[in-house]
Amino acid sequence: MKRLLSKLAVSAVVAGSLAASIAAKAEDTIKIGILHSLSGTMAISETTLKDTMLYLIDEQNKKGGVLGKKLEAVVVDPASNWPLFAEKARELITKDKVVATFGCWTSVSRKSVLPVFEELNSILFYPVQYEGEESSKNIFYTGAAPNQQAIPAVDYLMENEKVQRWVLAGTDYVYPRTTNKILEAYLKSKGVKAEDIMINYTPFGHSDWQTIVADIKKFGSAGKKTAVVSTINGDANVPFYKELGNQGVKATDIPVVAFSVGEEELAGIDTKPLVGHLAAWNYFESVDVPENKEFIAKWQAYTKNPKRTTNDPMEAHVIGFNMWVKAVEKAGTTDASKVIDAMIGVAVPNLTGGISTMMPNHHITKPVLIGEIKADGQFNTVWQTPGTVVANEWSPYLEGSKDLIADWRAPLSCGNFNVKTGKCGGKS
Amino acid sequence: MMRAILLILGLLSCSLLSPLPVRADDSAALLSRLATDNYGDIESGITALASSGLAGSEIILNALADGRLSYRPSDKALFIKDASGAWMEAATNATPASVPMGLKPVKVNNRVRRALEAALGSMTLMSPDPLKRIAAADAVFKSRDANTLAALDAVISKEADATVKRHFEDARAAVLMLKSDAPEADRVAAANTLGARGDQDSLALLSSVTEANAPANVVASASLAAKGIERRLALLSTAQNAWYGLSLGSVLLLAAIGLAITFGVMGIINMAHGEMVMLGAYTTFVVQEFIRAKAPSLFDWSLPIAIPLAFCVSGLVGLLIERLIIRHLYGRPLETLLATWGVSLVLQQAVRSIFGANNREVGAPSYMTGVWDLGGFQITYGRLWIIVFSLAVFLALLVVMKGTSLGLRMRAVIQNRRMAAAMGIRTPVIDALTFALGSGVAGIAGVALSQIDNVSPNLGQSYIIDSFLVVVFGGVGNLWGTLLGALSLGLANKFLEPLAGAVLGKIVLLAIIILFIQRRPRGLFALKGRAVES
User: Fold this and answer.
1) Model-level pTM?
2) Which of A179, A336, B9, B332 has the greatest number of C-beta atoms within 10 Å?
């Protein structure tokens, strides 16, 4: 008993001194929050982003940190649980005193943390392509808005594949629903008739695609060139593509262009039957420019895995992080309000050989790339916008949002300014 | 004229012969058109190459289709990589003196791929291999290249094989159907040929014939033929739906049958059942990785090898769970539910830590890929095997329960635990074995599900709700009920899906099951007897 007590005492002392040393260290570091799910359904996508952030922070520290201080990552696990995202965000800001947070994947997790970041006036970098229709003072959107991904993809199919009939297939939640609404309005504005558009929604994790793929084949046999625009999310993609391969839907007959399928998702599928199906992103691992080659080499060395893939949301974090570093250096402080003001106009190189700029609507300019799936699970870029595209955070094709703009510069400083009524505050 | 074409075709088909010395400059110019990264230029280059009759063009186009063609940007010379990885100059078939440096692959996109298929199709019409001739005819059917018409006429008159001839005639009809300067009578005949072919491709072609591109009586016969095909396809689609339902039912059966034992027979609400399925799928992955590394020739045997291993792995984990946790909680369903749910989270995260959060690729053996086309009614081999497999598992389990002494003891314990104990049956051992059996069967299901779903730590979650539905609907404690429950849910799902959509279909089905359970709380097949009353 005595021995046990002494052991306890020793361990308490050790723990105490450890805590003290951490506290001492915390004094001269800048803390950055990483809010990505490491367990639960979204872990499949978000774990890589956590690793990306750790890599970026490590790289920055090798260069001497920011403002003469080292950076320190604070990793929390919101476990794919939306309310927990808000709780963990609050914990990061109030308890860990992080100066900026990089995180979230699904729109619902972003919506869940948005009030927290606005209330506590902190900064969130959101790296995933999303449905738009939002602009917050405290959030920087480094992923694509619909006009930086979906609309150029549709344009490509219309011009290069002469597609006249469209299947809009998606998982039943906010991103596909909004994106498809925008696409439907856009297609109709281009003269596509209602009977040439088929919209199909499936539940999360849908695994039996036999009927739907057969329906797509049937829809495609009306004598007009048909394409599928897929906003199918996450795990449901693997069985969908397997069924396409099984039923022999070839890209030369009915191409499928996907907005949520990247290198990571293809890692779980035999891609030989899928060669030629498309994806629209702002970055592909296969992009052949020196910046990208260098990034991949360093990333694979950092993860000690020569096969580790890279993907689009990773590039978004790279851009977002570099922008934050630049803005902090420009502002000379990590104070959120000053950094937010300094962010607008900051330009950093992206990984596809161009420059991305943070615009007053808190979205960044991006090039749009269309890639075809190759037999080795990578993408072959077949088309690319000549320059970068500015995000339409409020879609001009939707009734409620076409009069809205976001501009966070003084004196406007508004996320939903209505140009018709001249008032900040949205539709009314 | 005919002779000239035959001569060209003959030259093409034996293009392996030494290259023609003539037109060396022309051929160099022709080949250099492929040495670019502009897809439009590559596309037109392919068409020009195919119609040039240049010797060796088939080899070059095949290399391009397989991604083995590269070019040197400095002098636009083409190089072909052969199977051993060695380079060969495309223009001369000669091995270059030194290994060429700075090569860039000639890239293909869908447009180029279509042009390639069409070009290769028209070039292989005279191949000695009947399967290749059929493939060539189908390629022409798709490309509808009017230039191949003369070649088609020539091969049709010579073709002895009736099947190949039919494919040739279909291809010819497809070309004629949209050829605006073809005689009207030919186009009407083409519409009838396509109507007789009767598949979706023909329907697509026939529906694209309109007043804009054809005279009135051609349009009339085309739309008549299209209507005939539509009627046929409507009939077929009912049969096809029934098949899809059967196939979904078999997947549900596989997922639920282990649960039918642990929940149905033992009454344990086992939320970790899905994770047993997931463990089986990961076992398959490990087996395949091992085979890929050590004995690639055995790849087709990976699933038969994985089945007993998956049974053992999941069964063993099940045994551990029962011994360590569940046996302390018998008769306390709520605690069991929470404890097994916790176990399921632990197992998921354990797998995530070991294998990573990403999906793992499980390959399909050769006998599980492809489609069996029965005149428009399509059976995918993968699904066929899963149906056969699930029925086999069901029968095997039935034999174990009804025909072995273990099964006898299990049933005795289920019917009256105290009486069975009094007869000398060691009920704790039987409990553990029953749970291990149920878990092992779930593992086997994982082997099959790895073929159609993604192998990720979340695999099990998507099946747990459906599995409980099947068991409750079929009747707790009855294997036959599970079979019938799974098949009827599968069929109902697939017939509701086209009517209501996948999301609404699922909701409607859930509502129907709830109403059904209200009327018959014990499911389709209710167990009768004293055990049930207590």
Assistant:
1) 0.83
2) A179
SS3 A423: strand
**Residues of chain B contacting residue A160, judged by C-beta atoms under 8 Å apart:** 111
What's the whole-number average pLDDT of chain B?
85
Q: Which of B110, B349, B358 sits opposite A276 (nearest CB)?
A: B110
For A426, the token pair is: 């949205």
A247·B111 Cβ contact <8 A: no
B38-92: pLDDT as tens digits? 888 888 888 888 877 777 788 888 888 888 888 888 888 888 888 777 888 877 7
Q: Where are the alpha helices (DSSP H) in B356-478?
A: 381-403, 405-415, 417-422, 427-449, 461-474
Q: Which residue has 């939640």 as its token pair? A: A173
CA distance B369 to B303: 14
String of DSSP letters for A357-395: EB-TTSBB-B--EEEEEPTTS-EEEEEE-SS-B---SS-
Given CATH 3.40.50.2300, say whether it is the number of domain A25-144+287-365.
yes
CATH class of A150-258: alpha beta
Q: Which of A203, A235, A238 sits opposite B506 (nearest CB)?
A: A203
Residues with Cβ within 8 Å of A140's Cβ and at least 6 positions away in sequence, in order, are: A123, A124, A125, A126, A320, A323, A343, A358, A362, A364
The rounded distance, in Å, linking the Cα atoms of B18 and B10 is 14
Alpha helix segments (H runs only) across A28-106: 43-62, 82-90
Of the ranges A239-248, A256-265, B191-200, B382-391, the best mean pLDDT one: B382-391
pLDDT at position A340 over 70: yes
DSSP for residue B20: P
Please measure the distance between the N-terminal and C-terminal CA atoms of chain B and give it in whole angstroms.
Answer: 92
How many whole angstroms separate alpha carbon B406 and alpha carbon B429? 11
In chain B, % of residues over pLDDT 70 = 94
Kindly determine whether residue A44 and residue B358, on different chains, have CB atoms separated by under 8 Å.
Answer: yes
| Interface membership of B138 toward A (CB under 8 Å) | no
Is A161 in CB contact (< 8 Å) with chain B?
Answer: yes
B residues 473-502 lying closer than 8 A (beta carbon) to A: 493-494, 497-498, 501-502
Asked if B36 reaches chain A (Cβ–Cβ under 8 Å), the answer is no
List all residues of chain A from 279 to 298 with a beta carbon under 8 Å from chain B.
Answer: none
Report domain extents, chain A.
25-144+287-365, 150-258, 398-428
Q: SS3 of A424, please? A: strand
Give, rounded to a whole angstrom, the gap between the first and last alpha carbons of chain A: 72
How far, in whole angstroms, is CA A159 from its chain's centroid? 27
pLDDT at B227 over 50: yes
Quickly count: other Cβ atoms within 10 Å of residue A67's Cβ.
14
A38 vs B contacts (CB less than 8 Å) = 357
The pLDDT value given to residue A74: 96
B208·A224 Cβ contact <8 A: yes
Calpha distance A186→A180 (Å, rounded): 9
Kindly report the nearest CA distance between residue A219 and chain B, in angstroms. 10
Q: Is the ipTM of this complex over 0.90?
A: no
C-beta neighbour count of B249 within 10 angstroms: 25
Contact B453 A215 (CB under 8 A): no
Chain B CA closest to residue A243: B452
